[in-house]
């Protein structure tokens, strides 16, 4: 590797000599890929961290919209990305009514 740094915004180089994606680029890529695969657009990210295999994040999506909104069904998805930001997998961790988010 030529350059390394953390998520502080400094320039990065990956093993192939190209620039590593920034955290914002990774989150955008994850959102686009998850939306394309599931048809559901993430509303927020509650976890985002680097792993030995790349990145992992947890994204919240509305699976079923109801009125009132507090009765809508929200799901938490765990999404894994390789170091370059390509989605390598996802799984639904849990579902809950928006108004009953606590465990």
Short summary of the structure?
The protein contains one helix and four strands, in the order H-E-E-E-E. With 103 residues, the chain is an alpha+beta fold.
Please, could you describe this protein's structure?
- By secondary structure, this protein is an alpha+beta fold.
- It has 1 helix and 4 strands.
- The protein has one helix at 23-38; strands at 44-51, 54-64, 73-81, 87-97.
- It has a 4-stranded antiparallel sheet with strand order 1-2-3-4.
- The model is unreliable at 1-13 (pLDDT under 50).
How are the secondary structure elements laid out?
Blueprint: H1 23-38, E1 44-51, E2 54-64, E3 73-81, E4 87-97
Antiparallel strand pairs: 1-2, 2-3, 3-4
Give short descriptive properties of this protein.
single chain, 103 residues, alpha+beta, four-stranded antiparallel β-sheet, 1 helix, 16% helix, 38% strand, disordered N terminus
Strand residue content: 35-45%
Largest sheet features: 4 strands, antiparallel
Number of strands: 4
The percentage helix is 10-25%
Order of helices and strands: HEEEE
Distance between the termini: 43 Å
The quaternary state of the protein chains shown equals: single chain
